[in-house]
Amino acid sequence: MEPVPLQDFVRSVDTASLPRVLRVYSGVYLEGSIYEIDGNECCLSTGDLIKVIQVCLQKVICEDPGTGQTLELPPNFQGHFSPLTSPHSFRTLEELVCDSTQSSIQLPIYFTSTHSIVTKNRVVTENQPLMLEAVEMHHGTHCARCVLVSGAQQVVLHLPLSQKGPFWRWKPGTPQTLLQVLQDPAYKDGMFTCPSLPWNSLILRPQYEVQAIMHMRKTIVKIPSTLEVDVQDVTASSQNVHFIKPLLLSEALAQGGPFPLSTEILEVPEAPPIFLSPWVGSLRKGQKLCIYGLASPPWRVLASSKGRKVPRHFMLSGAYQGKLRLRPREFPTAYDLLGALRPGQPLRVVVTKDCEGEKEEYPEFSSLAVGDRLEVLGSGQVYGAQGQDIDVLVCQRLNDQSGEENEDYEEVEDQERLLLPLYMPGGFVEERNDSRRYSLADLTAQFSLPCEVKVVAKDSSNPADPLVSFPGLRLEEKITEPFLVVGLDSKPGTYFEIPPRWLDLTVVETERQPEPPAGPVPVATVEELSEAFYYNLRKLPLCENQEPPPRPPKSQNLNEQKASSKEESTESSKVSKPKHPKISLLPKLKAKTLPEFFKDKSDMYSKVTTRKGIRPTESQTENPDTDEHDYEEIVEHFRKTL
């Protein structure tokens, strides 16, 4: 088959024979035809193969050959068409007869008139079909004997050959619909008449949409049939040609199967590696993979190693079967203690670093020594020396017998309550006597993250479990993300899990039929993460659940120094100004921020702990109407309360 314009191929192709493979040939002056599809440019170059899978009629342009006027018809146009067999009209019946004789057209001849014909006994309306049976003498005049079909009756008319038209020769038969005349190859480029349209003769120019498959395109290409390219049908010689359709792992995940799915890698994203596992190096172009389906369970835990200068970061699958034991948590500041406090869960810590309170500016802030035992009660606020609010952590200093069952009331009453500013640096380690071994699922269900653990038994399904070698592990955050279970064809028995969101490979399906695994696919339940990827994960909204710690207030001494330096700079002026000594305002408790810890101790213990032997004691409350300059009364109030 020689190359033909795309429009001609579409008009002549039988839709029942689709799909057809075409080779593209560009026009004489074109190296390639570029057109736009949904905002994306598509190029058809010489030699390209396309696989036509469907042809859809979009619209039909109807043209008057005499004037060149056009109008657009929808594919569902309801009018009926009769084909005209002559390329032009005839002015008289004599011209019609002579042209038919010269063209060796046998009688009878079917024709129609574009104007009404008035005879002695009848009026023939315009476009009414007539059949010319013979030419004979009638009443001494050369006439055309015509038959007019009117319902079930046939009427014979003798029309003189000088009868003026114009006349059109037409093909007999039942008028056809628009789709019927377009699908008949005999009517290609023919002329028609249609009583529903304003013209006596017309040409139909259909426009189609060609739906085709191209190499390396994910979607079906939609090509207008009016595109000026030539094509050649090469279906017979292209039986072994396979059109590659790229597929992203995210698309395979969204489709939901069918799994297992045999694929080959076409492209690997150009980005720094996210996993530090050996199988990452096998992900390259041409590598064959088998996708077994969605990993279960879908949740993961981010973890970091403890006890080394450079921590390592891991992602633990929810299927991890190692055994974990809780480790005492370490807290560098009072703010971290407040973040770890949970309702109904007492938090007791031991001080590991001496901390001196700011006695000069804030006498009520406590100092801590190594070995002090504290119980965290909650948070509150106090008035600072400069009038600003200072967030504090309310704690209780414990004696050595506070955890025993036989402690008496007097010992509990003598226990000291402390106020620690949240910005206070220090060192605290949690008191914990829990020696139970937990699975990862049980631990995340019973305790809030982050928490610190020690892996005391490795995952039996992962002989190379690296977590048992660390003295401690900090479980940071629990995330939920779909993973795909993937295996390497080149390394049987090598299976791993890929998150399409962060490692979206471009693959293509292969014809090889994968064999379903005999049992559960053994995958690595621990993947080491690169440092950059780990911190990118920690930036996710799911992980941003804590506010930054508060900044310490400006030191009053520093303010006094600035003020004194400013005063010294003005001593050289001749105008002397009286100097007023600055009185340091001692901080006052805000009346509504610490009621739980200083008004009713019995209520405080009911909310924080359920220890036995606590006797409720009365405490004085601050009078809100007290003069703000009664410093001695304020200090005395703090001493009685604390």
Description:
It holds the Pfam family CABIT. One of its GO terms (cellular component) is nucleus. The strands form 7 sheets. Strands 1, 2, 5, 6, 7, 16, 17, 18, 19 and 20 form a 10-stranded antiparallel sheet that branches. By secondary structure, the chain is an alpha+beta fold. It is built from 12 helices and 38 strands. The termini are far apart. The longest helix is centred in the last third of the chain and has 14 residues, at 556-569.
Helix-strand makeup class: alpha+beta
Quote the beta fraction.
25-35%
Radius of gyration, in Å, reads 47 Å
Measured as a percent range, the helix fraction is 10-25%
What is the number of helical segments per DSSP (H or I, 4+ residues)? 12
What sort of overall outline do the alpha carbons produce when their principal axes are compared?
elongated
Strand elements, count: 38
Largest sheet: 10 strands, antiparallel
Instruction: Kindly report how far apart the N and C termini lie.
Output: 102 Å
Average pLDDT reading: 77
Segments where pLDDT lies below 50 for 5+ residues?
27-32, 402-413, 555-592, 598-642
What's the topology here?
Blueprint: E1 4-5, H1 6-12, E2 20-25, E3 32-37, E4 40-45, E5 49-63, E6 70-73, E7 80-84, E8 90-92, H2 93-102, E9 109-113, E10 117-118, E11 123-124, E12 130-138, E13 141-150, E14 153-160, E15 164-169, E16 176-177, H3 178-183, E17 191-193, E18 202-214, E19 221-224, E20 230-233, E21 247-248, H4 249-255, E22 261-267, E23 288-294, E24 299-306, E25 313-317, E26 323-326, E27 330-333, H5 334-340, E28 347-351, E29 373-383, E30 389-398, H6 409-414, E31 417-421, E32 425-430, H7 440-446, E33 451-457, E34 472-480, E35 484-488, E36 495-498, E37 506-509, E38 526-529, H8 531-538, H9 556-569, H10 595-598, H11 601-608, H12 631-641
Antiparallel strand pairs: 1-20, 2-5, 2-20, 3-4, 5-6, 5-18, 7-16, 7-17, 8-15, 9-12, 9-15, 10-11, 12-13, 13-14, 17-18, 18-19, 21-37, 22-23, 22-37, 23-35, 24-25, 24-34, 25-38, 26-33, 27-32, 28-29, 28-32, 29-30, 30-31, 33-34, 35-36
